[in-house]
Amino acid sequence: METTTPQDFFEKTLPARFKPEKAVGIDVIAQLNVTGVEGGNWTVVIKDQKLQVTEGTHEKPTVTLKMNENDFMDMVNGKLSAEKAFFTGRVHFKGDIAVALKFRDAGFL
Q: Beta strands 28-35 and 63-68: pairing type?
């Protein structure tokens, strides 16, 4: 089923996609800033194989991702790979790329 808004992704899709067994050893705070009409800021914490999503910003995230709503929705719906988004400049990333790859394995992207 296709996710229609960033908020829908963070509230419903991401928790359903999350794979705790793939999150062993991940301890990260990710700040996601999605620009656009339906955009917003979300903090995703993965620690002890648990996922916590809150709306808003964190003052000291481990990684930060910023992208526009259309590219974000294409990425979470499988129309744009995270790698292509990164290499074509559609996502602005700050932090450890190895952590971002672990995110993907845990079902995040």
A: parallel
